[in-house]
Specification:
Blueprint lengths: L10 H17 L7 H7 L4 H8 L8 H11 L3 H8 L5 H20 L2 H24 L9 H6 L4 E5 L7 E7 L2 E6 L6 H18 L14 H13 L2 H10 L6 H9 L3 H16 L3 H10 L10 H4 L5 H12 L4
Parallel strand pairs: 1-3
Antiparallel strand pairs: 2-3
Helix pairs in contact: 2-3, 7-10, 9-10, 12-13, 13-16
Length: 325
């Protein structure tokens, strides 16, 4: 006998609705947002919108997701992964918030700060290499406990972290604790923990690692770079890149291999391309001329890397990165 209560048939659609509403509210801070404002994007009536919100209507067609991504000015890949249950709300919101923050900062950074950041990039890549070497990490995925063995002033424990994927606190001078939810070790959680490790090193312990003086304007970029460099070392990325079948989406395949979000792989591939092409002008010109890849340079890298299409980027980057080794 049917009861009045009906469980969600499509729980992933309800999560997609929640995420899209949160993004819409962020985009339209000056005006009040209601459920139908979101439904109108897909030309839904009030009933369809309500069914979507409560997980009684599946929303996963490419056309619907493209319309949402365009209207909300957000990543199609994130919406796709939410719609098929690959991501949950916390993971998607973490990635969205980090990307938005870096884009906002990148739009304001001065040419002089860009130059200094390029110099710091070299230093931080070297720091990541030293930390991984001290932890004797030579294979992937890079596990968080292995990294922590090289950083004895840190501990990583499971505790309640509220609405965050990870939090950190100073327990005593020069000692820190990083907390994450028990049983919640996912790709985005790994990134959040490494972000906290990088934040501690770059904000509070720079002198211990012989780093240049802190520049607050550059700190978010440095945290992102060091985190990605620890989880996806360029030498291992280049090696694994050669092993990916040409029949696969290279970004997705590498994200699974390194146990990181696809946005981290896109960033590291862009970094590898920038590093490689900047040392070979002829190869750079050939790459841009013979492929449909977005132009990847130090000047536009911040604004474009999170918008690169996974499949197109993977195909166009193969022939260039193939010559790295």
């Amino acid at each position: 006998m049917r009861t009045g209560h009906q469980t969600e048939r499509f729980p992933q659609s309800a999560v997609l609705f929640k995420f899209c509403m949160a993004v819409l509210q962020k985009r339209q801070r000056s005006t009040k947002v209601n459920d139908q404002d979101l439904g109108n994007i897909l030309k839904y009536n009030a009933s369809d919108t309500s069914h979507w919100k409560h997980g009684k209507k599946s929303v996963k067609s490419v056309h619907a997701l493209e319309a949402l991504a365009k209207h909300l000015n957000t990543d199609f890949e994130t919406l796709h992964d939410l719609s098929d249950g690959t991501l949950d709300f916390d993971e998607a919101w973490f990635e969205f918030s980090e990307t938005e923050s870096l884009k906002d900062l990148a739009a304001k950074i001065s040419p002089e700060m860009r130059r200094i950041r390029a110099e710091h990039t070299i230093v931080l890549e070297d720091l990541a290499t030293r930390i991984l070497a001290k932890a004797d990490i030579t294979s992937i995925p890079v596990f968080i406990p292995e990294v922590v063995t090289a950083l004895p002033f840190l501990e990583v424990i499971t505790r309640d972290v509220g609405d965050k994927l990870a939090r950190s606190t100073r327990t005593k001078p020069g000692a820190y604790s990083i907390r994450y939810r028990k049983g919640d070790m996912r790709a985005h959680t790994r990134v959040a923990i490494i972000h906290e490790i990088s934040r501690i090193i770059l904000h509070s312990e720079r002198q211990k690692f012989g780093l240049p003086p802190r520049i607050d304007e550059l700190l978010p970029f440095e945290i992102e770079l060091l985190s990605n460099a620890l989880l996806v070392p360029l030498n291992l990325l280049k090696f694994e890149f050669q092993k990916v079948s040409v029949r696969l989406d290279v970004t997705t395949a590498l994200a699974d291999t390194f146990w990181v979000p696809k946005s981290v792989i896109r960033s590291r591939l862009a970094q590898a391309l920038t590093q490689t092409l900047s040392h070979d002008a002829t190869e750079f010109e050939k790459f841009v001329t013979n492929t449909h890849a977005p132009l990847v340079t130090h000047e536009n890298l911040d604004l474009s890397e999170d918008e690169l299409d996974d499949v197109a980027f993977g195909k166009s980057s193969r022939q260039t990165l193939a010559s790295i080794n």
